[in-house]
Amino acid sequence: MNLKKEFRLKHIVLSLLSSALMLSILGLLLHVKSGLHKSVGDIILTLNMETATANAVTSVVTFFRGIDTLGEVTVLFLATTGIALMLSTSQRTYEKVVHQESFILNIGSKLLLNVIILFGVYIIIHGHLSPGGGFQGGVVIATAFLLLFLANPNMHLNHFILTLGESLSGATFVLVGLIGLFKINILFGNFLPNPVSEIGELVSGGIIPIIYIIVGIKVGSEMSVIVEYFIKEDNKKEVSNA
Amino acid sequence: MLDFFNSNETIHFIITVSTMLLFTIGLYGVFTQKNLVKVLISFDIMETALFLFFIGLHYDFGRVAPIVDGNLNTFTNMVDPVPQAMILTTIVIGLAILALGLSFGIEYFRLTGTNDISKMNELRD
Amino acid sequence: MIGLIILFTFASIIVVALYAVLSQDVTQAVILFMGVGLGSVVLFLIFQAPDVALTEAVIGTGLSTAVFLLGIRHTSIDKEVKS
Known about the structure:
The complex is a heterotrimer.
Chain A: H1 9-30, H2 40-47, H3 56-64, H4 66-86, E1 94-96, H5 103-125, H6 134-151, H7 159-184, H8 208-232, E2 236-238
Antiparallel strand pairs in A: 1-2
Chain B: H1 2-6, H2 8-32, H3 36-57, H4 82-112
Chain C: H1 2-22, H2 26-46, H3 50-74
Helix pairs in contact in C: 1-2, 2-3
């Protein structure tokens, strides 16, 4: 057991007082008493029967609070751009390091890749019927690409397809919101037919599964690019300029 | 005795005190650690404590998850779905910001060769 | 009954987090932080939030640990190890 040996009293007291202050303010703002208040959540649950989705959290993320999802997609795009700018190699001279390849790891990882991607697509598509959705499925797809990189560090991803997928899905997301605005005067409104009798089927809920598929493609491609930039750092050996 | 542990006030009291302790541990790590990666780990512990606090305070004993399947048919007696939707997107954003911070650390290490935060004082005159 | 389960899970999470912050080895701290993530997945399931539990399970155990370990590898002096 190797722990630190010295503790300063002022650090411990300062941390305790700051966390007590912050959590008491948060508790006051949340204003949660058991069963005394009627909050927005109760009203949303009674309205949820008209949107014909079995998962209430999905309809809150894509339909009732669609603008928050737009902001989140923007923040992800900015973070990925920042990482790509910091770790790019256009300004220094590097010589490439080639690693040894192994035959068994290559074949085995390619067999497993198909199963993991199928699982991720299943989670994305069934987002409105069971726990799941675009965010979870996108990260599962990025984990499949991480497996591929761990087995073979010399691999290259096709940057053209990844860039195309990410930018097209971002533009389609905004376009779908604007179509809803022009047709029925609600931003991110539900303009496809969604009868209540089809709750629980795969094709139900109108625009909600389509929005989640678009978000899933975007999150999956962005996380794959982040993983690739972190692993490609290993292939550089700095040339000492004499 | 078991009735005492099933009441709403006891559960909310346990959740508040425990997440406060977890937040304190994370904040202590941010104050005193010298390695850059350990500062980021402590920051992530603070975020996890806040997520547990948000979701935990909206839980009452006897309510179910907000999903309708073959047995349930109406949306009654369910937990509030709005905090869950907000925390869902926040977890994914936390991962992206962590990767951004680590990329800054990698680039700084490549330029100067140190990852000790007490030696990063180029702006001091 | 549920209150006892919540109490024990919170106690184990706090002990693991304390060990993670105070340890000297950085790799050990990252693996212990993955334990905090696993405990929080159990807690999210007890609080009847399956979507949040699924997200935290995939991110906290898969990608977050991988990104941390790659960051540690590139910020420590190991110029002799590369073969």
